[in-house]
Amino acid sequence: MDQEKPKSSALSEKSGVEQPEIVSKIAAGHIVALRNKNVAAADLISGILSGNITALSRAITLVESTNPEHLAKANEVINGCLPHANQSIRIGITGVPGVGKSTFIEAFGKHLTGIGKKVAVLAVDPSSTISHGSILGDKTRMEELVKDQNAFIRPSPSGETLGGVARKTRETITLCEAFGFDTIVIETVGVGQSETAVHSMVDFFLLLKISGAGDELQGIKRGIMEMADAIVINKADGDNIKKARLAKTEFNRALHLFPAKKSGWTPKVSTCSAITKDGIDEVWEMISEFLELTKSNHYFGEKRREQNQYWMLETIDERLKNHFYNDKNTIALLEQNKKAVQNNEISPFAAAQILLENYFKFNH
Amino acid sequence: MDQEKPKSSALSEKSGVEQPEIVSKIAAGHIVALRNKNVAAADLISGILSGNITALSRAITLVESTNPEHLAKANEVINGCLPHANQSIRIGITGVPGVGKSTFIEAFGKHLTGIGKKVAVLAVDPSSTISHGSILGDKTRMEELVKDQNAFIRPSPSGETLGGVARKTRETITLCEAFGFDTIVIETVGVGQSETAVHSMVDFFLLLKISGAGDELQGIKRGIMEMADAIVINKADGDNIKKARLAKTEFNRALHLFPAKKSGWTPKVSTCSAITKDGIDEVWEMISEFLELTKSNHYFGEKRREQNQYWMLETIDERLKNHFYNDKNTIALLEQNKKAVQNNEISPFAAAQILLENYFKFNH
């Protein structure tokens, strides 16, 4: 740096009055010490169960850690929380950017805390590898909910694979439930396979839409309509009310084209406005109806058991693949074989065989 | 066995005149010897390339074998065939039982051989673990095509997993192409995930339907409509013609609800009758149009390269899982943990971790 800062300038300001520290240095020191302390799993568990939000946040950070040493401890905490979890409703919310997911979740969350619920809002956003979560990353988008004592907002964990991101969020659900949150909202963006991952960890799946130019069904991704237990058309206010009603009719007709659901539930379409709050209470009523039905026909518990099994097998598959694709004896050989397959020099099956033989030779 | 056979009966017949053997014992002996001979991979390859149908059948049997010793040889044969493969159009045909898949394929296949094509008909039917293929298992359902010199029909390979069944069929495509078949038809039944597997090995995907009671779209499985490059309404003959035309209109409208395809192709709906042969030629014209478009916009080659990469990674994943789930140190522990997860005694993630640690301990 050759350039020197000018010692004076026409734009210089007078130095102001010295202000006292806002945060006491002693108190801050305590917090830092607590943060750095290697808290035992048992302490985290008892902290979570006694409603200590710092313990919850720290346990989530542990779950999200990519440090292999944290894995055993994270599993210990989750297992300790498990007997106190599972007493909640898990709601998945998806919708492409622009439908107003944040404002909807804020209005919906405030409605829920208003009727005595404790709400945790999590997110699955596999695109957020570096930013530590673009969805919900900017908490200021949910100003009211952030300040709410009975709400907890956590951005998406980061990770290289959707599988990893989803697994971490699934584990965080258990921690939040043990803490006492009775309503878990999982947000995801309508891109890629993240809906399928979220669908496999929630009880109720809600697709958020806005009314458009009449061709409402254009561009809805395969499978998303079928996964939806409800389609909620947001921004039904002002000039949009009429369009939203038309969209409701069209979605209702489209939903009839899908086969009946195993849950016995007939998916519903409703309209709402996160601004005027019209229709927000109806969304919760609809979910309550769903709960009543699926608990009485035992679908609710069955699905959760199936989901648990799914996550065990998913975790195994993910780790087996990770082990293979991160194997130092595999990486270069894989690139080589990928090219050979692309150029039709070797069959995909023979290439796989070469890679596997090499892998098992070094891992046996 | 206490009961003795009666020595004479009122129902006895006179013994007939001794007939000469229909098949020469010497010739039969040759065939059996050839069958039992452990033919070298090089011989199978040169047999296939010179148009020897016995060599093709034997190579397919090798590919379908579950004997691990056959794996290396099968890969050798496929690699030898690879430079001579890939010059074909691969057509996937799906449709629920009752839409007339066999009669359609027979009529379609006869049309193709009539215009000088060489047609191989394969099947993916993951339900056929014991019967060695329920689809196409009964070749008499395609009487005409079976007798056709320019057609080859092979039932679905058996296997415990869809992945295995699909992989074997994908390998068989390469053998058939090297033999000289220029049109490969892959049949699958509209059940489970088999369409997705077939979709990932074909260039063109055709959904066969019949016209019903007006609610044509009821019960179409998620994703199948979106995968389809064409919907062909079969049995459009006699009293059905009008209904079939109505169904065509309805499907056309429904197809417009899906986003545009990466191929640049707009899916088409047509009607046909495998009995009167009306519209069968149009199906082939449609596929020719598709070929022209996707070869000129390079989608055709790109998709095949992507599919090759997909099959390499799929094969790796399948084998990694097989190795884990068949590991003698894993099986009992897996059952134990499945139960614990079901009963909420352990988290799915901790259970996965226990199983993986155990697996890698024994496999390191």
From TrEMBL, chains A, B:
Protein's name in the database: Methylmalonyl-CoA mutase metallochaperone MeaB
GO annotations of cellular component type: cytoplasm
Domain of life of the source: Bacteria
NCBIfam families from the UniProt entry: lao, PRK09435.1
UniProt similarity note: Belongs to the SIMIBI class G3E GTPase family. ArgK/MeaB subfamily.
InterPro entries assigned: GTPase_ArgK, P-loop_NTPase
One Pfam family of this chain: MeaB
One GO MF term attached to the UniProt entry: GTP binding
